From TrEMBL:
Protein name per Swiss-Prot or TrEMBL: Phosphopantetheine adenylyltransferase
Quaternary organization: Homohexamer.
Enzyme class per UniProt: transferase
Cofactor dependence: Mg(2+)
Keyword Iron in annotation: no
Biological pathway: Cofactor biosynthesis; coenzyme A biosynthesis; CoA from (R)-pantothenate: step 4/5
Site entry: Transition state stabilizer: H19
Similarity field: Belongs to the bacterial CoaD family.
Compartment list: Cytoplasm
Species this protein is from: Novosphingobium pokkalii
Binding locations of substrate: T11, K43, L77, R91
């Protein structure tokens, strides 16, 4: 029996309720879902790769999603997917702008390896506006992020903001 392995890649800086929704739903589509935590220096990460992997692992444990593993990578996605034995890449879509970018990436990835399919999952309507970048920005300006992340992640983000310092006063 062939085990269907899927990859859900991202920076997860921090992991949001939107990410958790895609992970929960993506895990139903495959036998094993690998959450690939990658680096993207252009995104100005708040947390180190190890901190983000620990954060995602903890959230998987708390959510009780058993067929998910968390693996860090710093390579071309398709090379990582091949090394993991994946046949599916799972990507979440929030808006039309996401689709345009993801469509282009899926086409490029297909050119690199046409044996790995990309599956797009639409974000839950209530979660569509959530983006890690915006969560960090809101937190850095002292805003309440509790509607966008779990309480534990909120506490971690708030603690990090206290370390680096808030931005602006009014």
């Amino acid at each position: 029996m062939t085990v269907r392995v899927g990859i859900y890649p991202g920076t997860f800086d921090p992991i949001t309720l939107g990410h958790l929704d895609i992970i929960r739903r993506g895990a139903k589509l495959v036998d094993q879902l690998i959450v690939g935590v990658t680096t993207n220096p252009s995104k100005n990460p708040m947390f180190t790769p190890d901190e983000r992997m620990a954060m995602v692992r903890r959230e998987m444990d708390e959510q009780g999603i058993e067929n998910v593993t968390v693996v860090g990578f710093n390579a071309l996605l398709m090379k990582f997917a091949e090394a993991q034995g994946a046949s599916v890449i799972i990507r979440g879509l929030r808006a039309v702008a996401d689709f345009e970018y993801e469509y282009q990436m899926a086409g490029m990835n297909q050119q690199l390896n046409d044996r790995i399919e990309t599956v797009f999952l639409m974000a839950d309507v209530s979660l569509q506006p959530i983006a890690s970048k915006l969560v960090k920005e809101i937190a850095l300006f002292g805003g309440d992020i509790s509607g966008f992340v779990t309480p534990t992640v909120r506490d971690e983000v708030v603690a990090r903001v206290e370390q680096v310092g808030r931005l602006g006063d009014y």
